[in-house]
Design brief:
178 residues; alpha+beta; two-stranded antiparallel sheet
Length: 178
């Protein structure tokens, strides 16, 4: 019997959320958008995702209002994908899932997430222990940790080796895909 694409019999907000973000690759696309990846080729090279799958995920995320498609070049036409407020609201979910994965599946710290204002590493619920506030994604800087590969193969990963504020576009994105 084929697995269904929805959870129609489930009266549950988790089931509805999984209909939107529960497919393989989807949360990684959202994670990359949070990191500042915006262009199709940059998602493609960083994730190693099949083209058809990436196109389908971007289409779904756009249709659900998680990403917004914006034209950045007219000739030839080129678009980028930017998180909407609805997409940015997934930050606590990504944060929690990342911490859970770090605790149960990795041997080292790959990334630090710190409060821009004071530099303190965020607590487990996205709070700043020094300031006592929950830090919105726009006020988070991502820094490489000691377990991150210092010489990654793909150009997007190389750009992400430097401290970077979440949601800001990648530095020199035209050079990333080259």
């Amino acid at each position: 019997m084929a697995l269904g694409k929805d959870y129609a019999t489930q009266e549950c907000s988790i089931a509805r959320a999984l209909e939107v973000v529960g497919e393989r690759w989807t949360l990684l696309v959202v994670r990359d958008a949070m990191y500042g990846v915006r262009r199709y080729n940059d998602f493609l090279v960083h994730l190693g995702i099949p083209r058809a799958v990436l196109a389908a995920r971007l289409q779904t995320l756009t249709a659900e209002g998680i990403l917004e498609k914006r034209r950045y070049q007219q000739s030839p036409p080129r678009d980028e994908y930017v998180l909407t407020e609805r997409g940015i609201a997934l930050w606590p979910t990504l944060r929690a899932l990342g911490l859970w994965g770090r605790e149960h599946f990795t041997d080292g710290l790959q990334r630090y997430f710190c409060h821009v204002s004071c530099g303190t590493e965020l607590g487990p619920y996205g709070e700043c222990p020094a300031c006592g506030v929950v830090v919105p994604a726009r006020d988070v800087v991502m820094e490489p940790g000691p377990a991150l590969d210092p010489d990654p193969a793909d150009p997007v990963s190389r750009v992400l080796l430097k401290p970077k504020r979440l949601l800001e576009p990648l530095e020199s994105p035209e050079n990333v895909s080259a």
